[in-house]
Write a structure and sequence with these properties.
about 700 residues; alpha/beta; Rossmann fold; 3-stranded parallel sheet
């Protein structure tokens, strides 16, 4: 019946004459704007929890302009009042579907701190006003859209839906929740960077195909009856028991060859023909394309944390588009079916997506309102997407994939010129050329066959893979050309740097430090101790020291006084009190007083979240219960771990003194250079400080997804 066509669904349109829709100044948010464009209805209505900013850094603008380029009429409903269905009727019924997202951020991460406190602002809202989106916005918006138009097709996507595509641990309710599909009642879920699936889906719906029959698009998930298969030749691999995945084919060696069934020659001799490596890999891939792995059901992972960790491990091992199999997970009497991940975009397709006629500013409906997320990126350029780092606490790899997708130099330079010519307030400084990381531009596996066969979760842990190309030359050339664009005075790098890659290229570090650091450079060692670093899949602190030496040496040579801004995580799975104490002592020995710290936040589907929930390590096999992981759950201990990072803050001294005494390290209490906190009178409580007294730094939004 159905299989997966591994030929990529194209993002760029096939030449079929002029599109039916001319580019709009802004995608319409009202009936009046639709009328001005001559529209009586929208083909697609995109609903978002963010303010509508017509810029490719914002998901709704990016996919909206892509669909517009394919000839579709796209409207935007931004931050609707979810308390009734009426705002979802603002643009009428869409001819094809509602596209529902929470916005650029997960709505729960957006609204709550890592300590479950409500944030005081929302960077994606005019005036940073909080409370403009509901909790679990994808579910709420989808239900309201269905209420507004019961017969409309509802498609969900974005990071919030991506990270909830299977049963997942929800930190805010402290329980395992179902996939977002049955809760939202959506017809289809698009996960990851969904341009391919989105374009193919829209084309097929426009051609009259019912959405219930569209079951072969990569990067999609949907509900089916229990036991459904795309075809009779499909094989189910039962992985519902811990580390008992049934028959598993060995990973194909892309360089190996094997004999095939020979054809007799005219003289009756049976020659042996060796199957070329590429053919062997293609055959294996076709076999995997007709296999589905059954994960432990929602009911099983809800009842057994070790099975939850096993399901997480299995999902992550099936994440490479080159060899991933479909996954299925039972939810009651039905199944959630996940097709394999989407194929990455080519450079030409990336250029097409980012080259649309974006207005590059917020919709005029917001007037002069300050929107912090827009202010942060309006002079920056996204040059790539994806991350092969695989950090267990981060959601980038789960959402964008580990294969780097890069734009061309020409496309990037064109956008710099567009910023110069069209973005109000530009004074000559480009504030970032980056993405999820600053320095993975054009980095890739040296051999596509190896890349397709690989099942490693990280290309750089426990060490940099010998098959990974680490040439920073193209990025150095891009920096140099960007500085030469007329009207550009300076280009700085604002994205976080992967320093274990950077030290492989002294030329890059020199170029960066000499020309592209605005006094401070963000870097994320995250910890100093081997225990937590092994659970984060981060390099040892020695690599950070090597980068710091290069940074300081090149800064001095350039005659500049510049500093690294290190980021650290407190209370990450695998972290003991002693680990945090050693980190605090390291910070003091290096004269560092860090402000930008955060407690670990368990986000859905992350491997570190599986550790947090299960107390086991899904990076290893889980047979027999697996490796136990230290978990910091209690509020007091989480405060202590964060206090170690801010050992210099007087408000933390009482807590630290008590902890040091309990740990048998009272020798670290005193005023000596090798002691951590001073002796002193008992710290005054908040009640005795009096009005107007400092209460310490405000909670900061974490930088990680």
């Amino acid at each position: 019946m159905l299989g997966y066509n591994h030929a990529m669904n194209p993002v760029m349109p096939i030449d079929r004459g002029a599109p039916e829709v001319r580019p709009a100044p802004f995608l319409p948010m009202s009936r009046a704007e639709m009328a001005a464009l001559g529209w009586d209805a929208c083909d697609v209505i995109l609903v978002t929890g963010d303010a509508y900013i017509d810029h490719p850094s914002f998901g709704m603008a990016l996919v909206g302009r892509l669909l517009e380029a394919r000839g579709y009429r796209v409207g935007i409903i931004s931050q609707p009042d979810w308390r009734s269905a009426e705002p979802f009727r603002a643009l009428g019924r869409p001819r094809l579907y509602f596209g529902i997202t929470a916005g650029n951020m997960d709505s729960m991460v957006n609204r709550y701190t890592s300590d479950r406190r409500i944030r005081s602002d929302d960077a994606y809202t005019p005036g940073a006003e909080p409370g403009r989106r509901p909790d679990r916005a994808v579910v709420v918006y989808a239900q309201r859209a269905r209420e507004a138009f019961p017969d409309a097709t509802v498609v969900i996507g974005s990071i919030e839906a991506s990270l909830r595509r299977i049963a997942h641990y929800d930190y805010w309710s402290d329980k395992v929740r179902r996939s977002v599909l049955p809760d939202s009642k959506a017809d289809l879920l698009l996960y990851g960077n969904a341009e391919r699936a989105l374009v193919a889906l829209t084309e097929r719906l426009a051609a009259g195909e019912p959405i219930a029959t569209i079951r072969d698009l990569r990067g999609t998930a949907f509900m089916v009856r229990r036991g459904w298969r795309p075809g009779e030749d499909w094989v189910e691999i039962d992985s519902s028991d811990v580390d008992q995945p049934g028959r598993v084919d060995p990973h194909p060696d892309p360089y190996a060859a094997e004999p095939t069934a020979p054809s007799p020659t005219t003289d009756g001799v049976q020659p042996i023909r060796l199957v070329p490596a590429a053919e062997r890999v293609a055959r294996r891939r076709a076999e995997r394309g007709r296999s589905v792995v059954r994960l432990p059901s929602f009911e099983q992972v809800s009842a057994d944390p070790v099975r939850y960790a096993h399901a997480s491990r299995t999902l992550h091992l099936e994440s490479n588009p080159g060899n991933a199999r479909a996954l299925v997970q039972g939810h009651g009497e039905r199944d959630v079916w996940l097709n394999p991940p989407p194929e990455p975009l080519t450079t030409a397709e990336m250029d097409f997506v980012y080259g649309q006629p974006y207005a590059r500013r917020p919709h005029p409906a917001y007037g002069d309102a300050h929107i912090p997320a827009w202010e942060m990126i309006k002079f920056s350029v996204n040059i790539m997407r994806g991350c092969f780092g695989g950090c267990t606490f981060c959601s980038i790899t789960e959402h964008e994939g580990r294969i780097i997708q890069s734009r061309s130099e020409a496309s990037i330079l064109d956008e710099i010129e567009a910023i110069r010519d069209r973005t109000p307030g530009f004074a000559g400084t480009i504030t970032d050329l980056g993405g999820p990381t600053a320095n993975m531009y054009r980095l890739a596996c040296k051999d596509p066959a190896i890349e397709q066969a690989c099942r490693r979760l990280s290309c750089v842990y426990p060490g940099i893979c010998e098959n990974l190309g680490t040439d920073h030359g193209p990025l150095v050339q891009l920096y140099r050309k960007a500085r030469q664009v007329p009207g550009v005075k300076r280009v700085t790098i604002g994205s976080g740097l992967r320093y274990d890659l950077a030290v492989r290229s002294p030329e890059y570090v020199k170029e960066l430090v000499t020309h592209h650091v605005s006094g401070l450079l963000k870097i994320a060692p995250e910890h100093t101790e081997a225990g937590p670093l092994s659970k984060m899949m981060k390099p040892g602190i020695g690599t950070y020291d090597a980068f710091r030496e290069m940074f300081e040496r090149f800064s001095k040579a350039a005659g500049k006084k510049q500093h690294l801004v290190p980021y650290f995580i407190a209370a990450h799975p695998g972290t003991s009190d002693e680990d945090m104490l050693n980190l605090a002592l390291w910070l003091k020995a290096h004269g560092l007083r860090v402000d930008q710290v955060q407690n670990f936040l368990p986000t859905p589907m992350a491997l570190a979240t599986a550790m947090w929930h299960s107390g086991r390590n899904p990076l290893k096999r889980l047979a027999g219960g697996g490796e136990a992981v230290t978990i910091v759950r209690g509020g007091r201990q989480r405060r202590l771990h964060k206090a170690f990072l801010r050992y210099h803050d007087p408000e933390n001294w009482l807590l630290l003194r008590e902890a040091l005494k309990r740990m048998g390290r009272a020798d670290l209490i005193g005023n000596g250079p090798n002691q951590l906190v001073p002796r002193g009178e008992r710290q005054r409580t908040a009640a005795t400080r009096g009005p107007g007294a400092s209460r310490g730094p405000a909670s900061r939004r974490g930088r990680r997804g």
